[in-house]
Write a structure and sequence with these properties.
single chain, 65 residues, 43% helix
Length: 65
């Protein structure tokens, strides 16, 4: 299991959803499917590494309006 560094920024499902223009539940499904790695807080909430999200965003850019 990898440990977080002090500088690692974590994003909420809502923050990730805004970046991809999807519903937060979609982000949760991506985590369950293995598309994104989620980290659980002590309260059981999912968080996502900003670096991993940005990498995925580069592979799948936002669609235009």
């Amino acid at each position: 299991m990898s440990r977080l560094t002090d500088a690692e920024v974590l994003l909420t499902p809502g923050e990730v959803a805004v970046l991809f223009r999807v519903d937060p539940k979609t982000v949760t499904r991506w985590a369950k499917a293995g598309k994104l790695t989620s980290i659980r807080t002590l309260g059981g909430h999912r968080r996502y590494r900003e670096s991993e999200v940005k990498e995925l965003l580069q592979d799948h850019p936002k669609t235009g309006n």
